[in-house]
Design a protein that fits this description.
Layout lengths: L1 E4 L10 E6 L26 E2 L5 E2 L6 H21 L3 E5 L13 H17 L3 E2 L12 E7 L8 E7 H7 L15 H22 L8 H16 L5 H12 L6 H14 L6 H18 L9 H87 L5 H25 L21 H13 L4 E6 L8 H21 L5 E7 L3 E8 L17 H11 L3 E6 L5 E8 L4 H8 L14 H34 L18 H8 L4 H7 L12 E3 L9 E3 L18 E12 L2 E13 L1 H8 L1
Parallel strand pairs: 1-2, 2-5, 5-6, 9-10
Antiparallel strand pairs: 3-4, 7-8, 10-11, 11-13, 12-13, 14-16, 15-16, 16-17
């Protein structure tokens, strides 16, 4: 036994185990994973396994993240399967012990179950080391490979009992990794398969004869047994039912289910087509070889019927199963991409909010620092003025100056962690006039000089008596809105309305559609300005809405209280970003609905396969002649195949009636066939046995008679002789009366 990395190829003639790094990212490969799938600490930094290889840990703390990670690791497991490995080892199961308690053993076990199901679906064994710490649980000793060293033998380790049961499920009715399919469900499926066979037999029995009832029952039992174990032994079940299908048309619908299951769940991607084509061969061969025995006539006609059955009940359902598997993988990939896009969007919004809060902190530094500087300056002046007149008050003024200086230093230390920020305050630096009516008018005038017609309406008193954070919010809303007009709607008419009441300030910036549509490359901004505005206004306890207008323009509406509630501001500032929405359809009603939809789809699919099979059989049987008149009459020198096609093959009953009573065969004849006789046309009563041979009479109710038989003898594959003779027979009624 050897262990090889998933990027290597298996060694010939050995039991090869494929190593996959399942719980950690490869060194330096963090960029290959979505940002939210890497485990992070409270500061948002990636958590690395410093005790072993320094690899970034994957975040398996939630069901949604585990499923997304399992998709990517599952692709590696698929590659191990495609390369020919016999087993897979998902390494670093114990990473949770080095995650700083951010991950737990329950997280690891839930994730390893997903990987186990994926490996078993690919036909691979799976096991893992690093589980000795779970020895207190119910455990079973198994052989697992030694870590990361090719060529080492397997060692005995302890695995948790519940996980081991998942890994080594041996139920004949369940796929590897499944535990929910017991004997009761298997019996229910067998009953359903038997019902399908009975219904199909009722439909096709008028088209063809078949084996006697006992033989049909035996073949049906074989089909149902294969139907029950199709998940555990998919290829064996498919090839087995394909061999029976040519003999028993009623097995068509169970065969379709087996083909669908095999193509969808087990078959290696590059081998699917080969398996489906290989399954069609036994059906066609059995139909051709046993065609005369089941009433299909010639071997060629049996081959055609087998081809129809193989195409409609094996190949088509198999292709549907392949399509279903590919669709599921595509959906997994799309869900992963959508989740990554949503995470990126949330991170971008969070970054915008953080940036806006940093800007607010910088503005606070400017404002408070300015006030503290004034306090320190005036305190210094007061200290100097009181130096001679009142030394005691001078000392107090000195204390005030020193306290102001200390407060300024501490403020710089606290806010200095934000880093240097540019003065992004519009027309000029932050002042006491920022956000007042003159400041907003200056913004409007600046836009007019840039070619934007702006109408400003101010309703109510000025904001110079309002808190600085309110005035700066008004300034930012107007400035950001006008900036967006410059970027995306150059030349559009803009209306700016500021409404100031005693307890509220409302700002409306609306632009009309631009006279000329902007170019595609115009206005390349970050796209996060409105998010920052919303954060700033929200911190004050206000609201901000932005969106297109019915006329084709755009409007930004902001409303905030004139006296912000500090408690509300702190509450909003500490709020965490909204969690990602739960996956749609994860509740119990949605699960039940999906089950009902799947059941209906399965019923409709089986109905479609049954209709397609019946249509194919009808079309194939249409050229089959009903009477010898429409076929070329047998003649000396005709090939055996043409003769069989014209006379509907060999009849065992007629051969038995002729045995011991037929004339001697030609010496050169190598074989003879005896075609079926009509119900009444080839029987004559004893009184007319010696009469004209062409007289057509009906089969009598009672009495003895003679049966007219035609014998076709061949020399090799060529018709050499045609003999017609009669043999004495007795009807059933006459036979019973003689016994009486």
């Amino acid at each position: 036994m050897v262990t090889c990395d998933h990027t290597a190829s298996p060694a010939a003639g050995l039991y090869n185990i494929c190593y996959v790094n399942a719980f950690q990212a490869q060194p330096g490969a963090e960029g290959e994973w979505a940002s939210d799938l890497l485990l992070r600490d409270s500061a948002g930094k990636v958590v690395y396994d410093k005790d072993c290889w320094g690899e970034a840990l994957l975040d398996i703390s939630t069901d949604a993240k585990r499923e997304r990670i399992a998709v990517k690791i599952g692709a590696l497991i698929d590659s191990c399967r495609d390369k020919g490995f016999q087993a897979v080892e998902p390494d670093s199961y114990d990473s949770y012990t080095r995650s700083g308690k951010r991950l737990t053993a329950d997280h690891a076990q839930a994730f390893i179950k997903l990987l186990s199901a994926r490996a078993h679906a690919d036909g691979l064994a799976i096991a893992q080391k690093n589980t000795s710490e779970l020895a207190d649980n119910r455990t079973t000793r198994v052989l697992v490979p030694a870590p990361r060293r090719p060529g080492t033998v397997w060692r005995a380790h302890l695995l948790p009992h519940n996980w081991l049961m998942t890994l080594t499920s041996r139920s004949s009715f369940a796929a590897p990794g499944e535990q929910s399919r017991g004997i009761r469900r298997a019996l229910a499926e067998v009953a359903g398969g038997g019902l399908l066979m009975i219904l199909t037999q009722q439909v096709v029995r008028n088209l063809y004869d078949s084996f006697p009832g006992g033989m049909q029952f035996a073949l049906g039992a074989v089909v149902l047994a294969l139907f029950a174990v199709r998940r555990r032994y998919p290829v064996v079940s498919l090839l087995g039912v394909a061999s029976v299908l040519g003999l028993l048309c009623a097995a068509g619908l169970p065969a379709a289910v087996i083909a669908y299951t095999t193509a969808k769940r087990w078959v290696v991607h590059r081998h699917r087509t080969a398996v489906l084509l290989a399954s069609a061969i036994p059906t066609m061969l059995s139909g051709a070889v046993f065609a005369p025995l089941i009433g299909l006539g010639s071997h060629r006609f049996g081959l055609a019927v087998g081809g129809v059955l193989a195409a409609t009940t094996l190949v088509v359902p198999g292709l549907v199963g392949i399509s279903k598997r590919q669709r599921e993988r595509l959906l997994w990939a799309l869900r992963e991409r959508a989740a990554a896009a949503e995470a990126a969007h949330r991170l971008a919004d969070s970054e915008s909010r953080i940036h806006e809060r940093s800007r607010i902190a910088a503005e606070m530094h400017d404002l408070v620092g300015h006030r503290l500087s004034l306090v320190s300056l005036h305190s210094g002046g007061l200290e100097m003025a009181l130096q001679k007149e009142s030394p005691e008050l001078r000392d107090e003024a000195s204390l005030v100056r020193q306290a102001a200086g200390e407060a300024m230093r501490e403020l710089r230390e606290v806010l200095g962690i934000l880093g240097p920020l540019g003065r992004d305050t519009g027309a000029g630096a932050l002042t006491d006039a920022t956000g007042t009516r003159p400041d907003v008018e200056a913004l409007a005038e600046e836009s007019r000089r840039g070619g934007i017609p702006v109408d400003l309406t101010w309703d109510g008193p000025d904001l110079n008596e309002r808190p600085a954070q309110v005035r700066r919010a008004v300034h930012r809303v107007v400035r950001e809105s006008l900036t967006n007009v410059h970027r995306y709607a150059t030349g559009a008419q803009v209306t700016v309305t500021v409404t100031h009441t005693d307890d509220r300030v409302d700002v409306l910036v609306r632009n009309e559609p631009p006279p000329v549509a902007p170019e595609a490359a115009a206005g390349l901004g970050s796209g996060r300005g409105l998010v920052g505005l919303q954060e700033r206004v929200g911190l004050l306890g206000g609201t901000l809405e932005a969106g297109p207008t019915p006329a084709g323009g755009f409007a930004v509406t902001a409303g905030m209280p004139t006296r912000p509630n500090p408690g509300a501001v702190l509450s909003d500032a500490g709020a965490s970003p909204a969690e990602a929405p739960a996956e749609a359809g994860s509740g119990r009603p949605a699960v039940v609905l999906r089950a009902v939809v799947s059941a209906l789809a399965g019923i409709l699919g089986l109905a479609g396969v049954g209709g397609l099979m019946l249509l194919g059989l009808v079309l194939v049987s249409s050229p089959q002649p009903d009477t010898p008149d429409v076929q070329e009459q047998p003649r000396i020198g005709m090939s055996r195949e043409k003769v069989e096609l014209a006379i509907f093959g060999d009849a065992t009953e007629v051969r038995a009636a002729a045995t011991g009573r037929e004339p001697a065969r030609p010496k050169s004849a190598t074989s003879c066939i005896y075609p079926p006789v009509s119900d009444g046309e080839d029987f004559a009563p004893s009184s007319k046995a010696s009469g004209t041979a062409k007289s057509a009479v009906r089969w009598p109710e009672e009495g003895a008679g003679h049966l007219r038989i035609t014998r076709y003898c061949f020399r090799g594959d060529t018709l050499a002789a045609i003999d017609r003779f009669t043999v004495p027979v007795m009807s059933q009624a006459s036979h019973e009366s003689s016994h009486d």
